[in-house]
Amino acid sequence: ERSNKTIKAIMSKLVLECPNKWDKYLAPALFSYNNTVNKSTGFSPAYLFFGRVTRNAHDLYFGTTVSTFYRDQAHYACNLYWELREVYGLVSQSLRQQQERSKKLYDKQVNRTRYKVGDYVAVWMPLPVSQRANNKFKTRLRVLFVVDKITSDKNYLVKDLRSLKLKAVHHDLLRYINP
Fold first, then answer.
1. Is 158 exposed, middle or buried (0-12, 13-18, 19+ CB in 10 A)?
2. What is the pLDDT of residues 24-35, one digit of tens each?
3. Which residues of 8-47 are buried (b: 16+ CB within 10 A; e: fewer)?
4. I need a surface site. Which of 81, 149, 153, 157 has the fewest CB within 10 A?
5. Do 98 and 161 contact (CB within 8 A), yes or no?
6. Are the C-beta atoms of residues 13 and 25 closer than 8 Å to each other?
């Protein structure tokens, strides 16, 4: 999804003058996307897929490419394996750091309701799979719940007032009801 959004943004800039010839610009847009270093991973998608930096026409023209000599295919494959193994470790570490940064930013911006024991709430519940196709716009809020216990900062134990069953629920799925 995110890559499609990025490619669409690149395409919108390339086809300003000739929107009817968008297919002419698709290959350059994909090449640009695949060879641009990703902020989250620290590497380009092409490098992560092929294990090397792809060459551009200007690299060949100006002679700016660096070639590494390998004795044979086995030497190349072994070298590529260890290099990519190291790179994937770095990517994994980089993605964890990016995830932590994103979580801190989200937590700082989120304005969530804090519920108390005894508050009446509605619970957002997904429809059973058998009912999803025909009830696309049906409300999924189930009412008549009361907060029974606060299990953590973000999780609550709520009691269904009809069946008296307890259900563990994340705060994102709760909506306050004024009795």
1. buried
2. 989 989 998 999
3. eebbeebbeeeeeeeeebeeebbeebbeeebeebbbbbbb
4. 153
5. no
6. no
